[in-house]
Amino acid sequence: MKRLLEAELIYGRLLDISEPHLIARYNKALEGFGLRPTALPRFSIDMTGFSPEIAYELGDQDYLDPNRVNRRFIILTPAQGELPVVHTSFSNTAALMHEFFNANSRAIHAVTIKDALYGEIEDTVSVVKDIDDLLSINEVRFRVLSAEGMLGKAAELRELIDRLKKVPNAWADDAMLGRMVELAQTTGDIRQNALVPDQLIFRHQAFWANHFGGVYVFLDAKTTTVICDPSAPGFRRSRPWQVSYIAISDHARIYDFLAATNRLQLPQASWVEHSGLFQHRADMAVRGLINEADPDADLVNADRIWLQTWIHRNAALVARDGIYPFLQEMSRAIAATGTVKMQEIAPAHRFLLVRAAPDHPDQWLVNRLVSQLVPRDFVSRFVFDKQGFYSAYEGYSEKFREYVVATLTGTYLKDKAAFRHKLYGLKEE
């Protein structure tokens, strides 16, 4: 992973923590979780407070994700709200954290001046044993504590203020008044500073979970759809009266479900030609085929002439694989007729021609699923399914890793928002 680290393709855009007072607050949060404090003088964190350096020090990548459910978090600064989530068991962890930051902005800004917030995103289950456990998660509650006890002191001060207002002669209680002054020296005027988060309960929307090899859960008005490996415990047994189950290998049913629920943008010249998606996937397909045939091929320096020469020399292999000529044919069909008759396309090839409907709220999750079903498109896999990308990267040859890193740094990392908009139609918020 050294090459990925150097190119900031893993653990990129994290926040550097080196100030002694922030490290001390982080350590109090770790102790609150029953973990040993870090001895590191410097480390980096993501939106949830996860630190790859501390994970390495503790020898536990899941130190903030025990049992891969009820995710822990540590908030040292409001700036974390702009960071990515680099280690999670649920695809919507980042969305939930964004909601928490947005709904409780005032409290987070006020508390983190003198303290740190930490706690858990509590689900309705403590351990995931089967699919039914995942399906039972309808909402989550943020259980929030503070490293220096700021929240507890604010609550105590609020109670004393209420007592002062309501209890006759309470103003004569010198001990109480002294305690109020002592607390206010720490919390400030809580009538002006909102120290307690306003919203702690959030809905758990459609998501991917990394349990049982990866489970996709899509929610519609009357039904829930689960897409995963049929060997997952509870497959077709958990709530069969209200849950539809689709095997991850069943391309036809997956396509029919996503298309019927308007989660896919089907191929039309109006977006296909502008996006360049077909050409992108054709290029990914042929380069992936080259790597499979010759892992030592120098794809970094391979220009179009070299690629066309390789295709001509290996015409039988290219034809047998079928993906590159298929995408070339579909590009010609779009140019000639403006559309593609999807029901005439083999189910295994349909996902090469589609992307998530850009206006659907599940667009990121759908693009993640599509990228898993189009494995040679490592760019899409990196954008939407980093866990899948990193797993695939481990199996690449050294020369192909070099090409992958060069491609991602030379395209996606240059302008992520523009790249996502052009290729996938995503509109940045």
TrEMBL record:
InterPro entries: DUF6638
Pfam family, one: DUF6638
Protein known as: Uncharacterized protein
